[in-house]
Specification:
The chain is an all-alpha fold and 118 residues long. It has six helices and no strands. Helix 2 packs across helix 5 and helix 5 packs across helix 6.
Length: 118
């Protein structure tokens, strides 16, 4: 059932984003920022954790999960380090994921020959 919940929640998030892209004049970058902020706000309100426990990867993989990860990192760092945690917490919490994205993107650029669209 974990896979089913991850599938429908992740699909629902993607469908809502597609509706925003199709029905509004919001640019994709702004929608991505909206998703990250939504995850952070839901995490701050304590609503994202139960949602993530139900949906698993369906809630943690999309950008809303990244926003929640940033929020959790900032919250923990502020508790441990004080106000400086506002600046360091999100970076520490998300460092592994960001590093992996950069490394794998770099490796993919060596393996594949990208072509420009005409």
């Amino acid at each position: 059932m974990e896979y089913v919940h991850a599938f429908w929640v992740g699909g629902l998030i993607c469908a809502l984003v597609q509706i925003l892209l199709d029905r509004t004049k919001l640019m994709p970058g702004r929608i991505m920022v909206l998703l990250v902020i939504s995850g952070a706000v839901l995490g701050a309100l304590g609503l994202y954790q139960p949602f993530q426990e139900l949906a698993g990867a369906g809630a943690s993989v999309p950008l809303t999960g990244f926003g929640n990860l940033l929020w959790n990192g900032v919250k923990e760092a502020v508790e441990q380090e004080g106000l400086i945690g506002i600046f360091t917490g999100g970076l520490k919490a998300s460092a592994a994921g960001i590093t992996a994205a950069l490394v794998f993107g770099y490796l993919a650029s060596f393996l594949f020959d990208p072509k420009m669209k005409k």
